[in-house]
Design goal:
The chain is an alpha/beta fold. The chain has 12 helices and 11 strands.
Length: about 290
Amino acid sequence: MKPMLAVARRKKYAVGAFNTVDYLSTQAVIHAAEELDAPVIIQFSVKTVKYWGHAALVNWMRELAGNAGIPVAMHLDHCKDVDFIQQCIDAGWTSVMIDASSKPFEENLALSKEVVERASKAGVAVEAELGEIGGVEEDIQVADEDAHLADPEKAVRFCREMDLAVFAPAIGTAHGVYKGEPKIAFDRLEEISRRTGVPLALHGGTGLSDEVFKRCIALGCAKVNISTQLKYVFIDSIVEYNRNGGAYEPLKALEHQYHKIKEEMGKNILLFGGQGRASQDQPVYADYE
């Protein structure tokens, strides 16, 4: 993921990072990216890993990514448990996220540095977060009054003291479905991007306007997370199939679901500017190792 995002930041596009939930949704996203010749990040939540097990997810990814003609990263999203992160590193994940953003700055920094040290020994990339992003993400709930933006001075120190593949600063987005118009701190985003020079991750992507996406990407967001939207398509596609009189044939229902996920996630890849980048940029990834 590290060279993938370094190139994306430099060329001012973003790689879509999709929280898939099973084999079919993972397959649909990878196929969408493959058709668009785009790099892609498949990320799993802690509860998804616990549900299916480390071995099953790694085997799915080895099969699906191994047969794809595009770069595919396997990422662990929002994890607070260092031992769980180590299990993913040992199992074959290519990147992991340590989310110690709820802790005081010094504790967050220390824990994040520990994860970077562990991961670097295995050639695994790391994402870390500063500031707290509001909303609900995989059973982690942050009330609006507790959410706070990343401090640029602390962000500079945070990124200077460890080698991150991507940095997730809180800039006013929120996980889940927005209840009102999100207030994005674009000035803070621009300052953090300029002063750290690290590819940034945009969390809480579901529900943002095309214009907000494009502006954030132009300011340095090279990784855009999509989770809630995929969950809605996952469920709504089956409801739609049933409502339209679809036969009680599971494989036909799953086929409908597959095409809906593939179509909708493909639209995000296009919006983020990933189309055609896989074959165009893959040769220069080695420059960023």
